[in-house]
Amino acid sequence: MIKDFSVENFLSIREKQSITFESVSKSDADDMLTVEVKPNLHLNKLAVFYGANASGKSNMLWALETIFMMLFRSSRTKEESLSTYRPFALWEGKPTKMSVSFFKKNIQYNYQVEYCRSHIIYEKLEFYPSGVKSLFYERKFVDKDLQADIQFGNNLGLHLDSKKALAENTWNNNTVLSTCGKISLKEDARDLSDLHTWIKQYVHDINGDEKKSIKEIVEGANKDPRMKKFFIQMLCKADFNITDFSIIEVPNVIPAEVRAVIEDNSSISDSMKKELLKPVKETPTFVNHSDDGDFSIPQSLQSAGTLHYLELLDFLYDLISGGHIYFLDELSEFLHEDLLSYYISTFLFNSKSSQLIFTTQDSSILDEDFIARDMVWISEKSKTTASSEYQRASSFGLHKNLSLYKSYRIGRLGGKPELGSPYLNLED
Known about the structure:
10 helices; Rossmann fold; 2 domains
């Protein structure tokens, strides 16, 4: 779980912006909203970002994704520029700085990184293996053609040959920890490889790591009885009238002119041509229930909302099954406000140590009891610098009896567009 995060000089973010997931207040009634990661430290399971269009709320998700991406994905070549360097438009050439504090199970890690387009300038990773802060590693840039200066903490117990292998394979354009993904390490380096694996498996890209097709989601659920039960229950509770789903074979209708193009295209392999021209193809179908009987509807005739909800259920199953971190942009897209509220409450009621961080334009959930003020962040564009700034809703000093929803709707919290008159003057 993430505890704190800060970022400077990234996309629309110019000056340093900091957010925290630490709960402001904790009571027994908040057990479903927070996780106690260590004595007297409670982290929110949920964070939601509001703001006008182009205010930068999505950019905070991109920044969060980026710092973890840099920890497990390495560059493909030594000469490759860092694709994660996306500076504020007026600060091109200045370094981007990020830091994050997070928990892997009950162990806290603090990480900071400073980088430019060509190389990582500095990075430092610390951890608390027995409650006391210790150095994981510290790395400093030396020169373009020289190996970085890397110091490993004594508590890691790394042997000399492991230190040498890591140092020699850590290029100037990738982090030390991401090097674990391209070399084989011995048992003495388990702390590094375990952390690398944990980030890869449990900290997800925005809207999922890889775009799964509906067919892949259905196939995955059909292979796992517990997952299938979850999907069917959630679809029924969502009032979609879907009681089952499966993969069926249907005729693969290919127009003659399209078939000829495929057959004559030399850039398509024979195996791919065979796959494309199969007489039948597999497609998901869904059993719908009515008082007059059950009937099947193929994926092609399902609504965009139904298919999007299936994708979201794939994420939700992870969130309630283990300690995952998901970043979802515009979670409310295609969802009725009641269904959005139900999705979020299901996550909060059933998850144990996961975090869901998302953006939305749907203000209706601010009226829900399960949305605490310290979970809500307001994104604004500064009029003087055009840079994004973020403020926690709990910092506005609203009286406890005032409605967060109404306060946001009337503009007391900001995060709303300032719109002019709808009457236009198109004359010179």
